[in-house]
Amino acid sequence: MRHSVLTAVLASGLVAASAVHSNDALAAGARYGAGDIFTRFGVAKVTPKSDNGTLSNGAIDVDVQSDSAAAFTLGYRFTDKLGVELLAAQRFEHDIELNGVNQASTKHLPPTLTLQYYPLGGTEARVQPYAGLGVNYTTFSDEKVDGSTLELDDSWGAAGQVGVDLVIDDHWALNAAAWYLDIDTDAKVGGSDAGTVEIDPVVVMGGLSYRF
């Protein structure tokens, strides 16, 4: 249910950004651009792709389940249209089904740094869409599996992002954003190499944005 609500928020914001008339988009508001320091915060849901690979030479199908947690970002716009943003969050905890049975779990943190482009940056537009590309680092902890031990290697991968701020006043805005993260991790079961788990999730976050 949370995922549906957050997806709807993101979709609504992006539709508003593309459909709003230019005179409405550029309606009076606070200038949005170079020098802005900001944070965004809310609830994020990590939804791994289906078919997360196999272990033990294809004998075990892996299915990593979704999880939600509080998340926030810190960012800076060094020109009107370009900025950087770092995503952070509470640890996400994922149940892992092996051959359709919930037998394992892991926690992870996915800090993600993106270089962002703001097409309406430098204006007083109330609707401020953005897109970004960058890098993700994911660290795993508290791995568990029934009857044995599980180890998941940390992961580096590419990241893509889309989002929108719906500006309320000089400081506050509603925010919705989504990231695609390339997360592949080598797994060991009982100390032996078992294969690669391809998580590759979409992260959807809805909440508020604050400019300092």
Task: Please give a structural write-up.
The chain is mostly beta strands and 212 residues long. The protein has one domain: Porin. Helix content is 10%, strand content 60%. The protein has helices at residues 2-19, 22-25; strands at residues 37-47, 54-55, 60-64, 67-77, 82-89, 92-98, 101-109, 112-117, 127-145, 150-152, 155-167, 172-181, 184-189, 192-198, 202-211. Strand 6 (92-98) and strand 7 form a beta hairpin. It is elongated. Residues 1-6 and 19-27 have low confidence and may be disordered.
Helix/strand layout:
Blueprint: H1 2-19, H2 22-25, E1 37-47, E2 54-55, E3 60-64, E4 67-77, E5 82-89, E6 92-98, E7 101-109, E8 112-117, E9 127-145, E10 150-152, E11 155-167, E12 172-181, E13 184-189, E14 192-198, E15 202-211
Antiparallel strand pairs: 1-4, 1-15, 2-3, 3-6, 4-5, 5-8, 6-7, 7-9, 8-9, 9-11, 10-13, 11-12, 12-15, 13-14
